[in-house]
Write a structure and sequence with these properties.
globular, about 270 residues, alpha/beta, 3-stranded mixed β-sheet, 9 strands
Length: about 270
């Protein structure tokens, strides 16, 4: 971890070899997914690093805001397919449940942080990557970024509370359009639907992020108290996020068993 001020735009390489890059500066914690060669797919190592970062933020009362972004030209392509293929081999096995739960837990932790979180999506977010984008409080994206549920295209049921996350962002109709009918949103459309806070070209994003995190980071104690009230008063929808994960788990495991270990295809019977 570094106390240096983070770069306004994430690096294009992963030369450090670290799964996640973290910085803490002037009351702002930044978490950068650092697996660009795999479009920042969430591995078990990345999931563990996200949890470690969240532990640090939760424990450090001097942190008043968090930024979540990614190295390279694509925010997150979802859970690493090697995790999904392993779970498909024996979906009911304790190890399969534990590995998928580790991925889910990572973005649940981001969505439960005691400070406002700002996500930066460049390129796109799909599947569990969209879950991570939906877990932040405020999403800033590029107008041409693609936000895609992606589970349908993979031939599996959504997981990680995906339907609840979408519903609380865009409502029932758009949730069905995205998760069941295979539609996607551009960054500009995401702003129109209320899923994203702002869409802007990459050079303009750092200023937007600074405007959002600056006031919150200057008085972390007050920020944390206000956010505690936000979480208590606004809360999740009628079904809690944890409940949604359990509701979806059985159907996702069923769909993985149906698919088997053929993760080179987009869905059952497809090449």
């Amino acid at each position: 971890m570094s106390s240096e001020s983070p770069n306004p735009v994430s690096p294009d390489t992963d030369d450090t070899g670290e799964a996640v890059l973290t910085t803490f500066h002037d009351g702002v914690g930044r978490l950068t997914l650092n697996n660009p060669r795999r479009k920042n797919a969430i591995t078990l190592e990345i999931a563990a690093a996200i949890e470690e970062f969240c532990d640090r933020v939760t424990a450090d009362d001097n942190i008043g805001a968090v930024v979540v972004d990614a190295a390279g030209s694509y925010f997150c392509s979802g859970a690493d397919t090697r995790i999904l293929a392993g779970a498909s081999a024996d979906p009911a096995a304790p190890e399969s449940v534990a590995q998928l739960s580790a991925v889910y837990r990572a973005f649940v932790r981001v969505g439960s942080l005691p400070v406002p979180t700002v996500g930066v999506v460049v390129g796109g977010a799909v599947g569990a990557g969209l879950n991570l984008a939906l877990a932040v409080d405020l999403l800033v994206t590029t107008p041409d970024a693609v936000l895609d549920s992606g589970f349908l295209a993979r031939g599996i049921h959504p997981g990680g509370g995906h339907l609840t996350l979408l519903n609380r962002a865009v409502g029932r109709a758009d949730t069905i359009a995205l998760a069941v009918c295979g539609q996607s949103l551009s960054g500009a459309q995401a702003v129109e639907r209320g899923l994203a806070y702002a869409a802007a070209p990459v050079p303009d994003i750092p200023a937007i992020v600074a405007d959002l995190t600056g006031p919150a980071s200057r008085d972390p104690e007050l920020t944390r108290r206000v956010m505690a009230s936000v979480r208590l008063e606004l809360g999740p929808p009628a079904v809690t996020w944890d409940s949604a994960i359990e509701i979806e788990r059985g159907m996702q495991m069923w769909s993985m068993a149906r698919k088997g270990q053929n993760w080179s295809s987009r869905g059952p019977g497809r090449s």
